[in-house]
């Protein structure tokens, strides 16, 4: 053996005594040091993190990697699966779509014919004429003696009213005794343009139709003390036939029962005494009257 070979063997022997023993497993399978509670479990859990992320098996082949789980020492709670966000469509309100329809909160008066709504309303307008405004309704019936077009009703033909209803120009409408009645948006807009509290005189069917809108009025029902008293009042008018009188009494009986439905009306006034009935009506509207007065003075 030559001197150079002997020197190489001596150096190799010396190097082997100084270097630490190699690991029992290849470097590719050594696990990165981390807390025990954070170590993944599974058949391939001892692979390096980079190989686990790439999905490589022990021989560099693609394989399934066990999911990483949190240990008991983790203070962070697992995130709950998020539910999909849903949005409920809201119905469009007629006065939101029309800025001109906004204004003071209206008042809806309802009750059978002969209950005294018109009498109470006239007195309300006389004493608070600068606060309230009456929404003139449309009808297809003939005018009664003393009624004026545009003041008591807008008297129109059935064809004209049906055309405007189809065009969406009415807040509510109903048919009674073969005649159409309804409240137009233009009538309400005219009152609200003067910054007054709009008063609507509608039947029970009209009340239910207004409930479907976003008008948010105060609902008041005026009724007679009894059907016998109502019949006497209707006969004193001398405007009803026996047939029409029977229809009105039958409708009044239904309305007086239906008005008791919870949430349908804010106030029910029994008009057995006109002064007391008006006092109850005025007290119910006192807050709205004060608001309107403050608005007119500002």
TrEMBL record:
<dbReference type="InterPro" id="IPR017665">
    <property type="entry name" value="Guanylate_kinase"/>
</dbReference>
<keyword id="KW-0547">Nucleotide-binding</keyword>
<dbReference type="InterPro" id="IPR008145">
    <property type="entry name" value="GK/Ca_channel_bsu"/>
</dbReference>
<keyword id="KW-0418">Kinase</keyword>
<dbReference type="Pfam" id="PF00625">
    <property type="entry name" value="Guanylate_kin"/>
</dbReference>
<feature type="domain" description="Guanylate kinase-like">
    <location>
        <begin position="104"/>
        <end position="286"/>
    </location>
</feature>
<feature type="compositionally biased region" description="Low complexity">
    <location>
        <begin position="74"/>
        <end position="92"/>
    </location>
</feature>
<keyword id="KW-0808">Transferase</keyword>
<dbReference type="InterPro" id="IPR027417">
    <property type="entry name" value="P-loop_NTPase"/>
</dbReference>
<protein>
    <recommendedName>
        <fullName>guanylate kinase</fullName>
        <ecNumber>2.7.4.8</ecNumber>
    </recommendedName>
</protein>
<feature type="region of interest" description="Disordered">
    <location>
        <begin position="1"/>
        <end position="23"/>
    </location>
</feature>
<dbReference type="InterPro" id="IPR020590">
    <property type="entry name" value="Guanylate_kinase_CS"/>
</dbReference>
<dbReference type="InterPro" id="IPR008144">
    <property type="entry name" value="Guanylate_kin-like_dom"/>
</dbReference>
<comment type="similarity">
    <text>Belongs to the guanylate kinase family.</text>
</comment>
<keyword id="KW-0067">ATP-binding</keyword>
<feature type="region of interest" description="Disordered">
    <location>
        <begin position="53"/>
        <end position="104"/>
    </location>
</feature>
């Amino acid at each position: 053996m030559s001197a150079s070979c002997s020197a190489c063997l001596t150096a190799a022997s010396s190097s082997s005594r100084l270097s630490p023993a190699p690991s029992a497993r290849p470097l590719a399978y050594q696990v990165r040091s981390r807390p025990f509670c954070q170590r993944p479990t599974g058949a391939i859990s001892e692979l390096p993190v980079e190989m686990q992320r790439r999905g490589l098996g022990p021989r560099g082949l693609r394989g399934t990697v066990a999911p990483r789980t949190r240990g008991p020492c983790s203070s962070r709670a697992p995130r709950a699966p998020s539910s999909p966000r849903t949005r409920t469509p809201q119905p469009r309100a007629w006065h939101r779509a029309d800025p001109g329809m906004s204004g003071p909160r209206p008042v809806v008066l309802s009750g059978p014919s002969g209950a005294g709504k018109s009498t109470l309303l006239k007195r309300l307008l006389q004493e608070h004429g600068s606060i309230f405004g009456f929404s003139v309704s449309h009808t297809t019936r003939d005018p009664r003696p003393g009624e004026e077009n545009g003041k008591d009703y807008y008297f129109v033909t059935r064809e004209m009213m049906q055309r405007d209803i189809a065009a969406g120009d009415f807040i509510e409408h109903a048919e009674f005794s073969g005649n159409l009645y309804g409240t137009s948006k233009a009538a309400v807009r005219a009152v609200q343009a003067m910054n007054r509290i709009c008063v609507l005189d509608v039947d029970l069917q009209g009340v239910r139709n207004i409930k479907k809108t976003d008008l948010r009025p105060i609902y008041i029902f005026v009724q007679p003390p009894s059907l016998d008293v109502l019949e006497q009042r209707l006969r004193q008018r001398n405007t009803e036939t026996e047939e029409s009188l029977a229809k009105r009494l039958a409708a009044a009986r239904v309305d007086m029962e239906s008005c008791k439905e919870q949430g349908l009306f804010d106030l029910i006034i029994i008009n057995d005494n006109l002064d007391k009935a008006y006092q109850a009506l005025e007290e119910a509207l006192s807050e709205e009257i004060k608001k309107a007065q403050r608005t007119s003075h500002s």
